[in-house]
Design brief:
Length: about 290
């Protein structure tokens, strides 16, 4: 049994994966081998036993072609620290008025004005996986109250309150951070009803654009110019079809664009392949959730 990558991997990382799994590892995009670590493309044959994603979400893969009996795993926690840093980069940029004040000083207007703080704010994390936990770590360092929603609650000293519904989280939070994977159940889950429950000022999306209903969000932002949508993702990306509202901070899906992180994500995926070989794979998903 061999391990195949459907994307380019350095010889050093291949060697490390061989040490972790005890298998011969190589790059092969076409053969549809038994054990595959994939990014955006793969090939399934009657020999395929495992599809292991390198990213934390699998919505970019055409999973409908995977037959029953093939184990599919996402790479939860990959890029989590960089994604969490990006959340707070956007929050601090907006709360501290960095862009606005920088523009003024560049035009020779050096005038103090009040800025905001994150300390004491209630941050609600929708989806408490690897990214959610990394967000909570940083939030606690800022003196924030952490509220979290997840399908599988657990004891966690970083979380001040777990809630049983997204609606409850939204109603309690000053800031919302979306870290859910995009599935059939989460598509459009942040809609007009959800937005109308929100009394805070900042909604951060570090996950996928389609988790948020586009028309509802754009209308909400137009109606509430004091509210901000801070997002690293967009609908129909990389094409931007709609006018970006002035109360949006938008970056072009770069939270995971840290080169060193990719090698670490590959190593994490290899570690889960080893767990699969040992009969205890983690982050197993039902492909039907992503159709």
């Amino acid at each position: 049994m061999d391990l195949f990558f459907t994307f380019n991997v350095s010889p050093e990382v291949l060697k490390k994966c061989e040490e972790i799994t005890g298998l011969k590892a190589s790059v092969d995009r076409e053969s549809g081998g038994e054990l595959q670590i994939v990014s955006s493309k793969y090939k399934v044959t009657e020999r395929t036993k495992l599809i292991q994603g390198v990213y934390g979400s699998l919505d970019g893969l055409a999973l409908k072609a995977i037959p029953p009996g093939v184990t599919v795993c996402k790479n939860s926690g990959a890029f989590a620290q960089s994604a969490a840093e990006h959340v707070f980069a956007m929050l601090l940029t907006t709360t501290k008025k960095i862009i606005e004040l920088n523009n003024k000083t560049h035009h020779k207007l050096f005038k103090k004005e009040a800025v905001g703080t994150l300390r004491g704010k209630k941050i609600g994390i929708i989806g408490y996986g690897g990214v959610g936990r990394a967000v909570a770590d940083i939030a606690k360092a800022f003196g924030m109250t952490v509220i979290a929603y997840t399908r599988s609650q657990r004891d966690d000293p970083r979380v001040d309150q777990f809630v049983v519904s997204i609606a409850r989280l939204i109603s309690l939070s000053d800031i919302i951070v979306i870290t859910l994977p995009l599935t059939n159940k989460t598509r459009g889950i942040i809609n007009a009803d959800a937005l109308n429950m929100f009394n805070g000022n900042f909604i951060v999306n570090i996950a996928r654009g389609e988790i948020v209903n586009k028309n509802d969000m754009l209308f909400y932002l137009k109606r509430n110019p004091e509210k901000y949508y801070l997002s690293d993702v967009w609908w129909d990306e990389p094409t931007i079809r709609d006018e970006v509202p002035p109360n949006v901070i938008l970056t072009p899906h770069v939270a995971d664009s840290v080169p060193a992180d990719f090698d670490n994500a590959v190593i994490m995926a290899c570690e889960n392949v080893k767990k699969y070989l040992d009969g205890r794979p983690e982050n197993v998903v039902d492909p039907a959730e992503y159709y």
